[in-house]
């Protein structure tokens, strides 16, 4: 009898340990997905955009950040929930709504991801140049090898989650330090966040496009799906993870905004050739410049990983061999991006056009998701909250209109 009780007790302890391990692993994946999405959006363009717009709008840029965060949350919560409930990737959902639409969406995202990854690889090279004086092209190659190593490793998903978390944490800590160093007018920033003296819709569409446009919109959702987190029972955790990702991006954006505002309010001149690097140098001298290099590299390398992983996730379901060897396809994606930068450089015109097109992907993707949210053959018995549908439609209309206007303006600048 005692022996049986001992066996039962051991089995119970083993089950509890197994449950705890699964719960811990699930939390790690959820946090990793949030950081993957956040760090994918925090790339070299993020640093430059935030610096330039703060120069132009000063304290009123706080309002732009607030509105963009609200729009980002609406978009991400909608997308992550439907991916989790359906158990399908973005392109698979699109193909179920209209055969071939998923292929179109995948092509747009892969082309956009590849173009931006050239910029991300370049940013990583520039980051190592500022941090340790390494030649930018050599730095880009070294960074690419680091990214490739992640996907060579057997447990690539876990390594990717951990790299995103560590890099994200380092960026936030360094950015907050510089924000304190510049002593920004916080009171003025708060006042203008809710009652701005100037509003720039162009800045809003740029920030939203950079935060949840293109591949970034699906980065976290696809990561959770690959880790097996799906179904209606997982929705509370999925929703929390999506909001956490946006808030991480918001903390980074606010810290950089305050750092730049502190420099601008002191009447110091920011170098237009490299605005974010100039801010860090003005704030903390040569050490500040090295810190910028660290932030730039961390921002770029996580964006390289995020862009490659998510872009390839859009073509995985198109052929069994891509599914089987998807890590090697991701590696090829990184190699092509790096080779393009090393031998050709950044195709500026292509990046500008693709950047504008990237913003157009958001209303298209979100439209697909909202249609899917109300189709039983995709979501089953799930009932999508009405407030998410209504706010989602508002984001689609607003971003669709602003994206078209922005694209026309960019085309006129290039070819007009």
From TrEMBL:
<feature type="transmembrane region" description="Helical">
    <location>
        <begin position="97"/>
        <end position="118"/>
    </location>
</feature>
<keyword id="KW-0472">Membrane</keyword>
<keyword id="KW-0812">Transmembrane</keyword>
<dbReference type="InterPro" id="IPR001046">
    <property type="entry name" value="NRAMP_fam"/>
</dbReference>
<feature type="transmembrane region" description="Helical">
    <location>
        <begin position="246"/>
        <end position="269"/>
    </location>
</feature>
<feature type="transmembrane region" description="Helical">
    <location>
        <begin position="327"/>
        <end position="344"/>
    </location>
</feature>
<feature type="transmembrane region" description="Helical">
    <location>
        <begin position="29"/>
        <end position="47"/>
    </location>
</feature>
<feature type="transmembrane region" description="Helical">
    <location>
        <begin position="59"/>
        <end position="85"/>
    </location>
</feature>
<feature type="transmembrane region" description="Helical">
    <location>
        <begin position="163"/>
        <end position="180"/>
    </location>
</feature>
<protein>
    <submittedName>
        <fullName>Divalent metal cation transporter</fullName>
    </submittedName>
</protein>
<feature type="transmembrane region" description="Helical">
    <location>
        <begin position="385"/>
        <end position="408"/>
    </location>
</feature>
<feature type="transmembrane region" description="Helical">
    <location>
        <begin position="130"/>
        <end position="151"/>
    </location>
</feature>
<keyword id="KW-1133">Transmembrane helix</keyword>
<feature type="transmembrane region" description="Helical">
    <location>
        <begin position="350"/>
        <end position="373"/>
    </location>
</feature>
<feature type="transmembrane region" description="Helical">
    <location>
        <begin position="200"/>
        <end position="225"/>
    </location>
</feature>
<feature type="transmembrane region" description="Helical">
    <location>
        <begin position="289"/>
        <end position="315"/>
    </location>
</feature>
<dbReference type="Pfam" id="PF01566">
    <property type="entry name" value="Nramp"/>
</dbReference>
């Amino acid at each position: 009898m005692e022996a049986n009780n001992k066996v039962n007790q051991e089995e119970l302890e083993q089950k509890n340990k197994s449950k705890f391990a699964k719960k811990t692993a699930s939390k790690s994946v959820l946090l990793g997905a949030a950081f993957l999405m956040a760090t994918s959006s925090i790339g070299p363009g993020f640093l430059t955009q935030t610096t330039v717009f703060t120069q132009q709008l000063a304290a009123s840029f706080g309002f732009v950040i607030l509105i963009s965060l609200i729009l980002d949350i609406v978009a991400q919560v909608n997308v992550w929930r439907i991916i989790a409930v359906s158990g399908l990737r973005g392109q698979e959902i699109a193909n179920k709504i209209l055969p071939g639409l998923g292929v179109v969406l995948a092509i747009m995202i892969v082309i956009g991801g590849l173009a931006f990854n050239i910029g991300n690889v370049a940013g990583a090279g520039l980051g190592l140049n500022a941090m340790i004086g390494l030649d930018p092209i050599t730095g880009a190659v070294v960074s690419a090898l680091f990214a490739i190593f992640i996907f060579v490793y057997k447990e690539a998903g876990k390594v990717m989650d951990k790299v995103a978390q560590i890099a994200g944490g380092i960026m936030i800590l360094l950015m907050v330090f510089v924000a304190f160093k510049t002593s920004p007018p916080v009171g003025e920033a708060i006042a203008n966040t809710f009652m701005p003296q100037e509003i720039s819709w162009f800045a809003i569409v740029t920030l939203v496009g950079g935060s949840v446009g293109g591949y970034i919109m699906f980065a976290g959702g696809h990561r959770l799906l690959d880790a097996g987190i799906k179904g209606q029972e997982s929705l509370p955790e999925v929703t929390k993870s999506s909001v956490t990702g946006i808030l991480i991006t918001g903390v980074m954006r606010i810290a950089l905004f305050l750092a730049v505002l502190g420099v601008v309010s002191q009447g110091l001149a920011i170098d237009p050739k490299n605005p974010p690097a100039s801010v860090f140098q003005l704030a903390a001298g040569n050490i500040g410049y090295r810190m910028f290099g660290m932030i730039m590299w961390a921002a770029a390398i996580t964006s390289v990983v995020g862009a490659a992983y998510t872009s390839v996730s859009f073509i995985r379901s198109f052929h069994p061999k891509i599914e089987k060897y998807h890590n090697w396809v991701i590696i090829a994606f990184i190699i092509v991006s790096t080779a393009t930068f090393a031998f050709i450089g950044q195709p500026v015109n292509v990046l500008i056009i693709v950047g504008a097109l990237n913003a157009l992907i958001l209303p298209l993707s979100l439209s697909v998701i909202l249609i899917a949210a109300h189709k039983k053959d995709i979501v089953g018995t799930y009932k999508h909250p009405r407030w998410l549908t209504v706010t989602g439609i508002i984001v689609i209309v607003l971003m669709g209109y602003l994206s078209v206007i922005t694209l026309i303006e960019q085309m006129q600048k290039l070819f007009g």
